[in-house]
Every structure is written in structure tokens, then in C-alpha cells.
Amino acid sequence: MDGAPDALGIDPGQLDESVLMHELEQIHRTRHDTLLHGSAEALDRHTSRMAELEAEYLRRHPGRQVTAGRTRLGARARGHADAMNPDALRGLS
Questions:
Q1: Residue 88's domain spans which residues?
Q2: pLDDT tens digits for range 28-83
Q3: CB 70 within 8 A of CB 77
Q4: What are the residues whose beta carbons fall under 8 Å from the beta carbon of 17, sequence distance 6 or more?
Q5: Taking a C-beta distance cutoff of 8 angstroms, is the pair 3, 10 a contact?
Q6: Does 28 share its domain with 15?
Q7: CA quadruple 13, 49, 57, 20: dihedral positive or negative?
Q8: Domain count of the chain?
Q9: 9 phi, psi to nearest 5 deg
Q10: How far apart are CA 73 and CA 9, in angstroms?
Q11: Residues 51 and 79 in one domain
């Protein structure tokens, strides 16, 4: 893209950091409604734009901090700990 708007919006590489973050927040906020109520075309466009924005974020932040609990191994450990906690099974923790 050359930075000009197209059907999906401005090339994410042309957005300044604050605008990129705003666009990411907006697209994630609207994802569920698009999935539930959008047409197939709307969902395809939403998915494409979200992928573009996320790819640009990752390109800019290759060394971003990854929280251990957000990894597959961390999720497994959390799941195992929850299975051992009877309150978690009842939704109390």
C-alpha cells in the first residue's frame, strides 16, 4: 500500500503509534458483534483489517513483553492449578 486509504483503511505502516493503538482497541472492541451480527463480507473485511493492524504492531514491537500466563505452557499450568482448586470448579475463585 502507498498510505492512501483503500477499502480496509489506511496502511497500518503509515499510522503513528497512538493511532495504531486506537485502531487495534477499536477493532478488538467490535470483533464480537461483527462475528455475531455481521455479514460474511463484513466478517472477512474485519478479519483482514485486524490481521493487518496486528501484524504492524508485532513488526514494531518484536521484543514486546509476553506474560507467562498468556503462553500455552502458562495456560496449562493455570488449568492444572484450577483443577486442583475446588473453589475454581464452583466459580468462586
A1: 67-93
A2: 999 999 999 999 999 999 999 999 999 999 999 999 988 887 778 777 777 766 66
A3: no
A4: 60
A5: yes
A6: yes
A7: positive
A8: 2
A9: 115, -175
A10: 36
A11: no
Query: What is the secondary structure of 32-83 as a DSSP string?
Result: HHHHHHS-HHHHHHHHHHHHHHHHHHHHH-TT----GGGSHHHHHHHHHHHH
Query: What pTM did the predictor assign?
Result: 0.70
Sign of CA dihedral 19, 21, 23, 29: negative
**Contact (CB, 8 A) for 46 and 40:** no
At 55, list the grid cell: 501484524
Quickly count: other Cβ atoms within 10 Å of residue 32's Cβ: 9
Closest to 49 measured CA to CA, from 67, 34, 64: 34
Q: Closest by alpha carbon to 67, among 51, 59, 78, 57?
A: 78
Give the position of cell 505452557.
Answer: 73
Three cell numbers, residue 49: 483489517
* Greatest extent of the chain over all pairs of C-alpha atoms, in Å: 56
At residue 92 the predicted structure's pLDDT band, cuts being 50, 70 and 90, is low
